[in-house]
Amino acid sequence: MSAAKTVKKRKGGKAAAGAGKGAGTRRAAAGGKSARVSANGARKSAGKSAKAPAGYKEPGLLKRLAEGPVICAEGYVFELERRGYLQAGAFVPTVLTDHPEVVEQLHLDFVRAGSDVTQALTYYVHREKLRVIGREKDLVPMNRTALNIAKKVARKTHTLFAGDICNTNIYDPADKKALREVERIFAEQVGWAADAGVDYIVAETFSWGAEAVMALEAIKKHSKVPAVVTFSIHREEHTREGWTAAETCKRLQAAGADVVGLNCHRGPDTMLPLLREIRDAVKCEVAALPVPYRTTTEQPSFMSLTDPCCDNARAFPIGLDPFVCTRAEIGEFGRAAYEMGVKYLGVCCGAGPHHIRALAEGLGRHPEASKYSVDMSKHAFFGTDSKIKTVQTEYRAKL
Ligand SMILES: [Zn+2]
């Protein structure tokens, strides 16, 4: 009910702001709070400083965050695996060379569902992952392809165009050679993203806080765009070197990150308490992109979930279906995080476009795909419409 109310307000805001059509409308309609601001005709900042680095054209990420929530769909590799276009295990998006049109369509699906961002599918397209699957020679073309596809969609839909770098899986604080290779991986991927003209760069899914700091340093050194740095907390409530989530975010903020926070591994229920600590610890914008799974205190990460129906076998990665959050739960997560002051919101591995739509609607938005959001009034048995025959509605209790 409150969501519907907020949607109405948003629509009012849109009209008052005279915000144009299509994606521009979506951009202007930045959720309940911001919509109210728009309706008053005063699009003032939410209070946080949002200085853009030199050479960065507004409206960009920071300005949008100052006005309200920004939704970023992630979790492409899981969705493409489910659709049959890449292999679970290595999770390298070989779909970029086999079926680039599928990647483009997935970007479009997420934007249609409410994503404000088209993030290039360069996750796990770094030289270490390609080495593992024996395709190092495809490193440059795959990165370029991913960036080109995302740029095309971003420019067409007026969404933000984000680059992406991620966990290298070779980071080892005691191995100097490995650290040099990590630096190289970040430098080259940031370079390709900068060449492509990204609006900002996401660094994500690090288990080591210091690896996240290295990724941030590479973004600062090799590009001029804002940095969103998110990392993952597994079963233990700290990074692999023992930093708390809040402490890690403070370090990232001090090192110049524009947005800091958590992504992947934890579901909404086990990520929210950490977000509270992070929000209290930093002044910069905070990000939250949980996996859409019902994680628990006992099994707080999606890799730790075991399925009682299958001999308590590990559910990750292809047996997670019984744990998937409902759309209402994702909507509720978005509302709770936003109320806490977390404004960069998304869903990671396991997310489909329907989750992004639920998140958007939870924030009071009405993306294109909401045209088809559920309406049971004309359902064959549960419908309330006068055209539904009583011979059907009377049978409800026996369904
Ligand atoms: Zn993920």
Outline the structure in words.
- The chain is an alpha/beta fold.
- The protein is 43% helix and 11% strand.
- The chain has 16 helices and ten strands.
- Strands 1-10-7-6-5-4-3-2 form an eight-stranded parallel beta sheet. A two-stranded antiparallel sheet has the order 8-9.
- Strand 6, helix 13 and strand 7 form a beta-alpha-beta unit.
- Helix 12 (245-254) packs across helix 13 (268-281).
- The two termini are 26 Å apart.
- Zinc ion (ZN) is lined by residues 75, 205, 264, 291, 348-349.
- Zinc ion (ZN) binds next to loops.
Query: Alpha-carbon distance between the termini?
Result: 26 Å
What helical percentage do the residues reach? 40-55%
**Secondary structure category:** alpha/beta
Which ligands does the model contain, each kind named once? zinc ion
- Total count of helical runs of at least 4 residues: 16
Which strands sit side by side, in order, in the main sheet?
Answer: 1-10-7-6-5-4-3-2
Kindly provide the radius of gyration, computed on alpha-carbon positions and rounded to a whole number of angstroms: 21 Å
**Structure summary, number of beta strands:** 10
Largest sheet: 8 strands, parallel
Shape: globular
- Sequence of secondary-structure elements: HHHHEHHHEHHEHEHEHEHEEEHEHH
Q: Beta fraction of the residues?
A: 5-15%
Are there runs of 5+ residues with pLDDT below 50, and where?
A: 1-50
Mean pLDDT: 89
